[in-house]
Amino acid sequence: MCPKSVSFELLGGDMPAQLTPGEVNEFLDSRPGWITFTSIGKDGYPHSVPIGYFRVDDDVYIGCRDRTQKVLNAQRNSKVSLSLESGNTMQDIKGILIQGDATVINTPDEMLELTREAARRRGAPEHALPTQPPPGAAYIKVTPTNVISWDYARPG
């Protein structure tokens, strides 16, 4: 998730602690909720939707239906963001904002590989992995260029 070329920013001022690259990965992998995927619509407005995800190395993958608004937006403008936050009070809020470049994946071979990886991460045994990609599906791969994080449970 955190290659050397990705910049990590602290939000500034008297703010919460920033997560380390390893903590960002742990937080993403713990899947504390739906990630919010934001793309830019053809009208120039942000389009934000909660959606399932998984991480492979530095990239985050979003599974969805092909030709949906988020896919069309990502094809038109690859600059997207992902936001994930957990906590209920100011004292325990933790989160990340990933700004990155999106690539839409909808070819059968790549789709099958990612569908199998998603199933593995949900705990499916090898013998039960899918043998065909789901019809009409796509993945959006988000390659991070900037990661901003916050953890209000720790002093900054």
Average residue pLDDT:
91
User: Are there runs of 5+ residues with pLDDT below 50, and where?
Assistant: none
Shape summary: globular
Residue share in β-strands: 35-45%
Number of helices: 3
Rounded to an integer in angstroms, the radius of gyration calculated over CA atoms is 16 Å
Q: Helix proportion of residues, in percent? A: 10-25%
Structural class: alpha+beta
Number of strands: 9
How far apart lie the N and C ends? Answer: 22 Å
Task: Tell me about the largest β-sheet.
Answer: 9 strands, mixed
The ordered string of helix (H) and strand (E) elements is: EEHEEEEHEEHE
What is this entry, summarized?
The chain has 156 residues and is an alpha+beta fold. Helix content is 21%, strand content 43%. The protein starts with 6 loop residues before the first strand and ends with a strand.
Written account of the structure:
The chain has 156 residues and is of the alpha+beta class. The protein is 21% helix and 43% strand. The protein contains three helices and nine strands; from the N terminus they run E-E-H-E-E-E-E-H-E-E-H-E. Strand 3 (35-40) and strand 4 (46-51) form a beta hairpin. The longest helix has 14 residues, at 108-121. The radius of gyration is 16 Å and the shape is globular. The two termini are 22 Å apart. The mean pLDDT is 91.
